[in-house]
Specification:
Blueprint (H helix, E strand, L loop, with lengths): L2 H13 L1 H16 L6 H26 L7 H14 L20 H24 L4 H20 L14 H8 L1 E2 L2 E2 H19 L1 H11 L1 H6 L4 H27 L10 H11 L11 H20 L4 H26 L1
Helix pairs in contact: 2-13, 3-8, 3-11, 3-12, 3-13, 4-5, 4-6, 4-11, 4-12, 5-6, 5-11, 7-11, 8-9, 9-11, 12-13, 12-14
C-alpha cells in the first residue's frame, strides 16, 4: 500500500472515528458474549436510546452555539410528572387529580411541551439579555426546576407518592408497537429527521453554527444573536419535554427524581459524537452515534456482568478522552 492510499485510509478513519469505535465496541462485546447480537438485545438498546437521543439532540442545539444546558435532566423530570399526573385512568385509586375528566391524549403532552419550551425561553433570555454564562444560567434553572417539580409532586392528595395507573393510550407511546416496530423508536426517528432539517436546511440552523463559530462575527454579519439564542434554547426545552413524556409513558409512571443526571449523559453523547465543546461543530448522525455508543456501553457492560462502578469509570474515561481530542483539534485550528 503506497503512501497516498495510507493517507486516504487514515483520513477516512479520522473523519468516521465515531462509527469505527461503535463497530469495534459491538464486535468486542459480541466476542465476549455472542448473544449480544441477538435481535432482542439490539431492540432493547434502541428502546433505551430513543428518549435519550431526543434529549441529546436538544443539548446539541445549545452546545453548537457554544453553550451548555445543565437543566435538561430536570426538565425531563418535570415534564414526565406533568404529563403523567394528567393521564391516569379514571379507575386508579390514587389519582393525582381525582376530579379531573379524561383529557384527550395530546393536551397534557402539549402542556408539558409548553412547560419545557418556557423553561428553554427563560434560559435563552438569561443568556442572551443578561450575558450570564450558559453554564451558570442553566445551573440556576436546573435547581429551580427541581424545586418546582418537588413542590408539584408533593401536592395533596399525591403527597410525593410515585405516579402510576397511566392510561393505555399514553403508555402505548412508550411501549406499544406499530407494524412490529416500537412506537417510541418511530417517534425518535421522526424527531431526528426534523432536527436534521433544522440543522442543515433552515436559517435557524445556519445561524446556530455561525453563532457557535464566532459570536462577534455573527453579530457583524447581521445575525440577531439574542433572538436566535432564544429560539434555540426554546427548541431544546421542547425536545427535553417530549423526551420526558416518553420516559413516563415507557416506564408507566413518574416521580420527581426522573431525569436525574440525564443532562450529563446527553452532553457526553454529543461530545463523543463530534459536537465541539467550543461551538460551531456538530451533526445529527454524530449525536445519534454518540447516544448509541453510550447505551451500548451501559447495556453491553451490564450484559457481560461488569460492575456498575467500573462502568462509571469507563464512561468517565471516554468523556475525558473525547473532550481532550476536541480541544486538541480546536487548538490545532487556531
Amino acid at each position: 500500500m503506497n503512501k497516498l492510499n495510507v493517507k486516504i485510509v487514515i483520513n477516512f478513519l479520522f473523519k468516521n472515528a465515531i462509527y469505527v469505535v461503535l463497530v469495534i465496541l459491538v464486535g468486542i462485546l459480541a466476542i465476549l458474549n455472542p448473544n449480544f447480537l441477538s435481535i432482542n438485545c439490539l431492540r432493547d438498546i434502541l428502546l433505551q436510546c430513543s428518549p435519550r437521543a431526543i434529549i441529546a439532540l436538544g443539548a446539541a442545539f445549545v452546545l453548537i452555539t457554544g453553550g451548555t444546558d445543565l437543566s435538561a435532566g430536570r426538565v425531563v423530570g418535570l415534564t414526565a410528572v406533568l404529563s403523567a399526573s394528567m393521564l391516569q385512568t379514571a379507575e386508579y385509586a390514587r389519582r393525582f387529580y381525582p376530579d379531573l375528566p379524561q383529557l384527550p391524549l395530546w393536551l397534557p403532552i402539549l402542556l408539558a411541551v409548553l412547560a419545557g419550551l418556557t423553561i428553554g425561553l427563560i434560559n435563552g433570555l438569561i443568556v442572551s439579555k443578561f450575558s450570564v454564562p450558559p453554564f451558570i444560567a442553566t445551573l440556576g434553572t436546573m435547581v429551580i426546576v427541581l424545586g418546582i417539580n418537588t413542590q408539584y409532586f408533593d401536592i395533596h392528595p399525591n403527597d410525593s407518592q410515585p405516579i402510576a395507573g397511566l392510561r393505555k393510550d399514553f403508555t402505548y407511546l412508550g411501549s406499544g408497537y406499530f407494524f412490529n416496530i416500537p412506537v417510541i423508536i418511530i417517534i425518535a426517528v421522526i424527531i431526528s429527521i426534523i432536527v436534521w432539517i433544522i440543522f442543515n436546511k433552515t436559517i435557524i440552523g445556519k445561524n446556530m453554527y455561525a453563532i457557535g463559530a464566532n459570536k462577534e462575527a455573527a453579530k457583524v454579519s447581521g445575525i440577531n444573536v439574542g433572538r436566535n439564542l432564544l429560539i434555540i434554547y426554546a427548541i431544546a426545552g421542547a425536545l427535553y419535554a417530549i423526551a420526558g413524556s416518553l420516559v413516563a409513558a415507557r416506564s408507566g409512571g413518574a416521580t420527581n427524581r426522573y431525569g436525574e443526571m440525564y443532562e450529563l449523559d446527553a452532553i457526553a453523547a454529543c461530545v463523543v459524537g463530534g459536537v465541539s465543546t467550543t461551538g460551531g461543530v456538530g451533526t445529527v448522525p454524530g449525536v445519534l452515534a454518540g447516544v448509541v455508543i453510550f447505551e451500548v456501553i451501559n447495556y453491553g457492560l451490564t450484559f457481560i456482568e461488569v460492575k456498575p462502578s467500573w462502568q462509571l469509570v469507563i464512561k468517565g474515561a471516554i468523556i475525558v478522552v473525547a473532550v481532550a481530542f476536541d480541544i486538541r483539534k480546536y487548538l490545532a485550528k487556531k
